[in-house]
Design goal:
Blueprint: E1 9-13, H1 20-31, E2 34-37, H2 38-52, H3 59-67, E3 71-74, E4 77-80, E5 83-84, H4 92-101, H5 105-116, E6 124-128, H6 131-135, E7 141-146, H7 149-162, H8 169-185, E8 198-201, H9 207-223
Parallel strand pairs: 1-6, 1-7, 2-6, 7-8
Antiparallel strand pairs: 3-4, 4-5
Bound molecules: 2'-deoxycytidine-5'-monophosphate.
Length: 226
């Protein structure tokens, strides 16, 4: 009997505002696969910490918030305790707190199985920092998406403005550098390409060109018998 293989996963890791989320969604739409925005889980934990007034430095308490997250992903909506917070969790203060609490192993462990549960046929596109290194180490295609920091700050600035948040580009650039630095240098699941990841630099690429590169890489894998 043929051994059944787990559903395929394409992982897309990279620094903040490298376009991971946009690319992951478009690739998933094209393939008609599920999508996991793992950063949203860290952001939801940060929101939960702020709302419950738990001390963000109390690792066990933060891990408990992460473990007990009451969240439902429904299309573009993210229902947290029944309230759609898809837009609220994009705020920069939430992203920064998410990065701080994500450095702690118990918090990461509390979210691990929840992330793996997104894997189902016909496949999953997962974006984050450690999708290819820790969460889905057996993924058949791993992308590490980079872009220079100025290009990323411009993109994030535009994104936030479109959502109605007022932000200063210089502050954004500073925050982004600090966040990347923390995500890269932490001890637990630092941001880094998996040994078998393919790096794509999207600084000079359009969204469609980047999506096409990922889809072409996937087609190659499939034709090689993945
Ligand atoms: O991708 P994002 O900007 O929404 O993620 C917010 C923070 O969450 C990010 O700065 C670090 C953390 N994170 C992580 O540690 N591991 C992931 N797989 C995804 C996000």
């Amino acid at each position: 009997m043929k051994e059944s293989r787990p559903a395929p996963v394409i992982t897309i890791d990279g620094p903040t505002a490298s376009g991971k989320g946009t690319i992951a969604n478009k690739v998933a739409d094209y393939l008609e696969w599920a999508v996991l925005d793992s950063g949203a889980l860290y952001r939801l934990t940060a929101l939960g910490v702020l709302r419950s007034a738990c001390n963000a430095d109390d690792v066990a308490a933060v891990a408990k918030v992460a473990r007990e997250l009451d969240v439902v992903f429904r299309g573009a909506s993210i229902l947290f305790e029944g309230e759609d917070v898809a837009s609220a969790i994009r705020e920069e203060n939430i992203g920064n707190l998410a990065s701080r609490i994500a450095a702690h192993l118990p918090v990461r462990e509390a979210l691990l199985q929840r992330q793996r549960d997104f894997r189902r046929p016909p496949g999953l596109v997962a974006d984050g920092r450690d999708m290819g290194t820790v969460v889905f180490p057996d993924a058949p295609l791993k992308i590490f998406l980079v872009a220079d920091v100025a290009a990323r700050a411009e993109r994030r600035h535009k994104q936030l403005k479109e959502k109605g948040f007022s932000v200063n580009l210089t502050d954004l650039l500073e925050d982004m550098r600090a966040r990347d630095e923390r995500d890269r240098n932490r001890e637990n699941a630092p941001l880094k390409p998996a040994a078998d990841a393919i790096t794509i630099d999207s600084s000079a690429l359009s969204i469609d060109q980047t999506v096409k590169q990922v889809l072409d890489l996937w087609s190659n894998k499939v034709s090689q018998g993945e």
